[in-house]
Design brief:
The complex is a heterodimer of chains A (270) and B (281).
Chain A lengths: L15 H4 L2 H17 L3 H18 L3 H8 L3 H14 L5 E5 L2 E4 H26 L4 H11 L10 H31 L9 H7 L1 H24 L18 H23 L3
Antiparallel strand pairs in A: 1-2
Chain B lengths: L1 E10 L7 E11 L4 E5 L6 H8 L7 E6 L2 E2 L4 H10 E4 L12 H5 L1 H5 L4 H14 L4 H4 L8 H13 L5 E5 L7 H18 L2 E5 L3 H7 L2 E6 L2 E6 L1 H6 L1 H6 L6 H11 L11 H13 L1
Parallel strand pairs in B: 3-8, 3-9, 6-7, 7-8
Antiparallel strand pairs in B: 1-2, 1-4, 4-5, 9-10
Classes of the chains: A mainly alpha (270), B alpha/beta (281).
């Protein structure tokens, strides 16, 4: 049952989006987010949506998967739409019932806000999470934050912690599954009873899980020490990130996207 | 009596990752007997075991306990969990209570027994598994590996199941721990007269203790029957990569080299009395 939970949203592939350097992708996402926030004209929003559709097509990720990325934030999106529709005051009154007024400006604001949210979410998912493996991502974060090392921030250690955490999620899920089965075999009942009773029923799962997590951490630390791991100092990489021409092209492309968005704002404001 | 009728179990059915765990398995676990299940990792041993107490629902086929489908509804499933006690591989990882005694009492308490009855059962289970009164008061996390294992097994024995199923009860223990645990289990079965199912990939353990053997390979039953029956089919066993008990292997080699010995024997004593007269000759 727990095995059905999908973790790590990475979809392996070989598109240009998959091959881009993860560092470039992180910067590209930031540039894309800036573009989305600078968009004011409906046309610039249209331009960004078009760009996003293009990226989804290139990445060969199914529309259904993309739609699934929006699902968890559906409530926020609906909430934003509703507040914008009913609380934006303007000049063109469309509909009135008692004290509830809906203006044309409200509808416009709601539509743009929802588009902004959706492009932000799907943009990050398509550019980063769906097309970049977690390992590549942590590696990129380490490299991008490496200037902070000079300020004494242990960036390598943070990246290592992230990598280990990601690595052990499936292991711990499997472990939880086993413990649940074992306690069920001893007649533990997780499904019926009051909320308090069910909360208490989790204790026989949590304690063994914590203990095994600590044991694993201990063993892993010993194993790493046995192989002379001593942190980031002087450590070399097996996979060295190398920038290609298309990485720079992608970077320029996203800078251009911001420029185009600004130009549309200025000359094609609708 | 526990009976599997054409049971198939598929992991992750309907997903791209689906994989057959068991394939059309029909088998009976006889009452009051020790049944040994052998097979390689991935042969379906653990799947079979988890179908026995309704933790898994068969994808097709039925699991019957005294003729009743254990997956009929939630009540029969829960009932099956009490009647078929399942001890998982490395059961010490399920311990959680403050004292060993309280941990053993977890199962009986879930059964809704009276405090007096629970206490009685904890004492009995501790005796069968060789845990002293002093240990019952200690934290399970202070115990040695073998003691933890015995504590976890006691937790299931305390539920007094009709069928006690153990997945690799002796895995990871030293020879002394092994024989203590397996010997204790045999003692327990002799006194209570209930059925015992032991899963192992150690041919020696299975050969020594089982009345019946089920050999699994790739989710299917390779052969089943008494140890004599199973070990006489050594060609089938060897073909699927299962080793014979060492004694049987020696006898088998002797018979292949032209000596007239019975190669289906599997204990040292049997082999001794088979070979001795021939050596004297």
């Amino acid at each position: 049952m727990l095995k059905d939970v999908t973790l790590g949203q990475f979809f392996p592939g070989n598109s240009i989006l998959h091959r881009l350097d993860p560092r470039i992708k992180i910067i590209a996402v930031i540039l894309f987010i800036i573009a989305v926030f600078t968009a004011k004209s409906a046309v610039s929003y249209g331009f960004l949506v078009l760009l996003l559709v293009g990226m989804v097509a290139i990445s060969k990720i199914s529309i259904r998967t993309v739609a699934k990325s929006i699902k968890p934030l559906l409530i926020i999106i609906i909430f934003t739409a509703v507040t914008n529709i009913f609380w934006t005051k303007g000049e063109n009154l469309l509909w009135k019932w008692k004290s509830i007024e809906v203006y044309a400006e409200g509808l416009r604001a709601a539509a743009l806000m929802v588009t902004r949210l959706i492009t932000l979410i799907t943009g990050t998912f398509v550019l980063l999470t769906y097309t970049t493996s977690p390992m590549a991502l942590t590696d990129a974060i380490e490299r991008l934050t490496s200037p902070l090392k000079k300020l004494g921030v242990p960036t390598h250690e943070f990246a290592m912690m992230m990598t280990i955490a990601l690595r052990f999620i499936p292991t711990l899920i499997e472990e939880t599954d086993k413990i649940i089965s074992a306690q069920k075999s001893r007649g533990a009942d997780f499904e019926t009873g009051s909320l308090l009773k069910r909360a208490k029923a989790i204790v026989p799962i949590l304690i063994p899980l914590f203990i095994s997590a600590f044991r694993r951490a201990d063993e892993l630390a010993s194993a790493m020490e046995c192989r002379l791991y001593h942190g980031g100092e002087g450590r070399t990489k097996m996979k060295i990130l190398k920038l290609h021409a298309y990485d720079f092209a992608a970077l320029l492309f996203f800078v251009a996207v911001i420029a185009v968005t600004l130009l549309i704002n200025k000359f094609l404001y609708i | 009596m526990l009976e599997f009728k054409n049971v198939t179990y598929i992991y992750g059915e309907g997903t791209p990752f689906q994989k057959k765990g068991l394939d059309d398995v029909s088998v009976k676990i006889e009452k009051g007997k020790v049944t040994g299940i052998i097979g390689h990792s991935g042969s379906g041993k653990s799947t079979l075991v988890q179908l026995m107490n309704a933790l898994y629902k068969p994808s097709s086929g039925t699991v019957l306990l005294d003729g009743e489908d254990i997956n009929k509804d939630a009540k029969t499933a829960r009932d099956a969990r009490f009647r078929v006690g399942l001890v998982f591989q490395y059961p010490e990882y399920q311990l959680f209570e403050e004292t060993v005694g309280a941990d053993i009492a977890f199962g009986p308490r879930n059964m809704g027994l009276s405090e007096a009855e629970i206490k009685d059962r904890v004492m009995n289970a501790a005796r069968f598994t060789g845990l002293s009164d002093e240990i019952l008061q200690r934290s399970p996390f202070e115990l040695s590996g073998g003691q933890k294992r015995r504590c976890a097994i006691a937790g299931v024995i305390a539920m007094d199941p009709e069928v006690l199923v153990l997945d690799e009860p002796a895995a990871g223990l030293d020879p002394r721990g092994r024989s203590e645990i397996l010997g204790g289990l045999m003692e327990y079965r002799k006194r209570r007269g209930n059925s015992l199912v032991i899963v192992s990939h150690s041919m020696e353990d299975i050969a020594e203790y089982s009345d019946n053997i089920i050999a699994l390979s790739a989710g299917k039953i390779l052969c089943s029957g008494t140890p004599h029956e199973v070990f006489s089919k050594f060609d089938i066993l060897e073909e699927s990569g299962l080793s014979l008990p060492e004694v049987t292997d020696v006898l088998h080699r002797l018979s292949r080299s032209g000596k007239s010995v019975n190669p289906s024997l599997y204990t040292v004593d049997e082999a001794f009395s088979e070979l001795l007269p021939k050596v004297k000759k």
